[in-house]
Amino acid sequence: MSQPSSPKAGPTRGRMSRRKSAGPVPYDFRRPTKLSREHVRTLQIAYETFARQYATVLTSTLRVVSQVTLISIEQLTYDEYITALENPTVMAMVEMEPLSGINIFEFSLSTALVCVDHMLGGPGGKQPQRPLTDIETPLIQGLLTRVLAELRYAYEPITEIRPKLGSIEYNPQFVQAAGSSDAMIVASFEMRVGTEECVATICMPFGPLFSKLQGDGLGSTLTDAQRQAKEAALRNMTAGLSNTPIDISVRFDPVTLTASELVMLRPGDVVPLGHPVTAPLAVTSAGITFAHAVPGSSGRRLACLVVPTPKEDDR
């Protein structure tokens, strides 16, 4: 999902190496990668188009040679994304209707100050590490508004979006755009403005964008052989999962005890259950309740009969 590029010297080297580190990567089965190769390719085409338009906007607005190149497209949790960012940095909050959630357009604070310097006729160069002033902020907002218009154009093959620029923040730890474990799609770009360079990122919630990627019509471009191979793989996976043994539990409602009561328990003690006599038991797997049942027997064996899920009013 990443394009190779040579390591860069300077302050961006650490961030680029963290995003493109070599070696094995742990796989979390509780958070599987859901982006298929076709989805990544679709996003790659859109973001490469955006990168070219982004570079054109920077060059024409700042009157200095600028370049934007796509580095990678990753699926990360929001906490992983925030942890990898520098502090301070420019984080523009963006709404992209009709996609739900808050999106983040981020790039380094020094690059933002260089852009302001060029817009005001300056030569760029080294900039102090400080937040934007009340005069500089509208200049950056105007630039970002033009850039987001190009993002709307790049996303037209996927879905129609209407980017709307919100507030600008500087401390990643104070930005609560999503839950820490929420899946995000993060696109990273190498951004050069004159001699200044950084890694810019666009972070979007996974769910709303993934639903649009599923309806991107890629299936219509598959050949008959590819479609048959895809259907055969789906059948094989379904057959394999259907025969996989799963531990199932039939449980009463849990009982709450204090620490002292738990320590004082001895053989022969009676622990009253709070489960109503008329309420069915919960059928669970991996801590998830997926059905309800009443206890009984089948011949000489204990058994349970699955019943409709009771309503809250009935319970």
From TrEMBL:
The keyword Cell membrane applies. GO terms for molecular function: cytoskeletal motor activity. SUPFAM superfamilies: CheC-like, Surface presentation of antigens (SPOA). Residues 241-306 form the Flagellar motor switch protein FliN-like C-terminal domain. GO terms for biological process: bacterial-type flagellum-dependent swarming motility; positive chemotaxis. It is found in: Bacterial flagellum basal body; Cell membrane. It comes from the Bacteria. Residues 1-31 are annotated as: Disordered. The keyword Nucleus does not apply. Belongs to the FliM family. This is Flagellar motor switch protein FliM. It comes from Virgisporangium aliadipatigenens.
